[in-house]
Amino acid sequence: MLSSFSAPSVHGRGAAAARLAAVALVSGLVAVSAATTAGAAVADEPPLNQGGATATIGALKTSGAAVIHEDGGDKQVSAGLFEMSVDNGGTLQTYCIDIYSPTQKDAKYQETPWSGTSLNGNPDAGRIRWILQNSYPQVNDLAALAAKAGTSGLTEQDAAAGTQVAIWRYSDGADVDAVDPQAEKLADHLERSARDLAEPAASLRLDPPAVSGRPGEPLGPVTVHTDAANVTVTPPADAATSGVRIVDRDGKEITSAADGGELYFDVPEDAADGSAALTVQASTTVPVGRAFASETRSQTQILAGSSESTVSAAATATWAGSGPIPAVSAQKNCAEGGLDVTAVNEGDEAFTFELMGAEHTVEAGATQTVTVPLQEDQAYDVTVKGPGGYEKRFQGVLDCQTQSGAGGEKTQTLSEPSPATVDGTTTTTSDLAETGASSATPVMAGIAIGLVVLGGATILFLRKKKTPTQD
Asked: Is the peptide bond before 221 cis (omega within 30 degrees of 0)?
């Protein structure tokens, strides 16, 4: 049950504007353009996400004050919960796990696995999930929460601030305290009590997100992973004319599926070489602890509460009568600081493709993954080009690291009140409608793409493996 909302703090960097460039809003890991094959029409373009909830960030709600201690002095900021509006219905509550990054007005966020965020490699990520499950708003009995924390009482503002402060200590390694003594006691209690928990599963994902094969054969399976009771399956938009159906393993056409269900593209045997996309959608509560990332470098969030919300995912299929038949997908790899581009070749000839100025060959029946190194906080625009006009494009921003506030970078707070002060020194504040916004963003996006295209082509890491999956 969704509790009353509060909101976390948002902090910006003086040099952050140049990092906020993005080519396009990409939900979740990577934006995938429609694939084309020789002589084939462009496939239905799937939603720009690889599964889960997509939401727009709102304002700070219930919050309290916190102080970040840095070499350059103390900075007072707001700490609490954000409210996010889910596309096609639903509301989320989130805390911040990226203390020194700004939050942009109306930024789009996509449910994202920890591996695609700054939580990747963080040994304390599981402790953050424990805090979320054992504090406000999941625990909305404030009297009981205060008793556990050893305080005389907690307001919603205290509870939100104390919870956010405890999270920041684990997510960013920040030296931060709550201003209110009761909120500080809660933060200390949560920090001491936190235990390691596993990452929660995605609310909805399809695995793999791309398949390929010959017409007349079932292409798949694409397996549904969800905590929803069932999902609605939508066939390709041109299914009535193309004859492409979505079927189960027995060849029966289906319009819904459950967790573990297998979906296949049933392509007519006489179909011309081409591609198509399916989408699935469900209504469910998103699991607490799921990360939410923005492709515009807006501050990364982690889920604290969810109403019944709409979640979706998409998968594509490519087919041909002979020759190479590729299925190409991509996902961020924060461990390697890059983008994993995976090509599966289900054809009877080798698939040779160009990526970032280098040529790669995937033998028939084989799989190959190329890791494209990327610069942190920089927009990327990566295109896979193959024979016969094959082309698949991936865009986004690599956002894998939290930033230290040291080095004189100015911290901004996201709050409606007048500027906060610490020791008589006024810190910069800004309203949500202004934080992170810049008229220079489109220009910077173009510059960033150029840098990635020129610099990223120098080194590519290859390795053979199965098509990557997400939890």
From this structure: yes
